[in-house]
Structures are given as C-alpha cells and as structure tokens.
Amino acid sequence: MRRRSVSPVIEPGTNRGLDATHVYVRRYWIPIIGPGAVADLLRLTAAAHSGRSLPEPVHLPSLLRARLVRRDADTLIVPDTVRPLDTNLVKRLPPSLRRTHPTRALA
Fold first, then answer.
1. Fewer Cβ neighbours under 10 Å: the N or C end of the chain?
2. Are 73 and 7 in contact (CB under 8 A)?
3. pLDDT tens digit string along 74-93?
4. How far apart are CA 16 and CA 13, in angstroms?
C-alpha cells in the first residue's frame, strides 16, 4: 500500500532547542522514541527546509505523541529546532545516559 505524500513546513520562531542534526538528538531521543522515529524526524526536517514532499513517515504517530511535530489539517509542521528532553523523559533514559545527560539548559 502506498503512503500518501506530505509536504512538511518549518514552524517559524521555534529557535529554542538544538538543530535536528545535533548529536544530542541521536544520543538522547533515540532511546525515547526509537531510531526509526528519529530518522523520520531528520527526513521531515530536511524536506521542510528544502520544500520537498515525501511519503508520510511510518513513525509519524511516535513523533506526534512526543510533540516533535504537529499536524494542522493536512500539513505537518516541523519545529526549526528539537527541544531537549524534559525531566520526565530524562528519567526514562537508561542509567548510563541519565548520568551523561546535560543538566543545564541546552538552548
């Protein structure tokens, strides 16, 4: 079954966070939402910056639940940056990553 095409757009004014390609996103978000969801987030961000369409991400429900993207009608809105994990999400990290997670604000 073919997935429908989506054209993500960047949400303006969301500069409190890290670039989606920052090592933090892979290191700390992967244990929370999974590698496939992070890969989908990176693809959505790249498509939004370049104005391209792409097939609807398989892991879109995970990204929506984590509030890393949002839907407005048929548009996927991608923030310009990825927010750091909040305290509740840091508690879900494995102990080794919890110990290395930065305690200060990253933005």
1. N
2. no
3. 789 998 899 999 999 999 99
4. 8
- The tokens for 23 are 């090592």
Number of neighbours of residue 48 by Cβ within 10 angstroms: 23
pTM of the model: 0.89
* Greatest pairwise CA separation for the chain in angstroms: 45
CA distance linking residue 101 with residue 107, whole number of Å: 14
Q: What are the φ/ψ torsions at residue 70 (nearest 5 degrees)?
A: -140, 160
User: What are the residue boundaries of the structural domains of the chain, listed by start?
Assistant: 5-93
Digit-coded pLDDT (tens) for 7-37: 999 987 666 789 999 999 999 999 999 999 9
Round to whole Å and give the CA distance between 45 and 81: 9
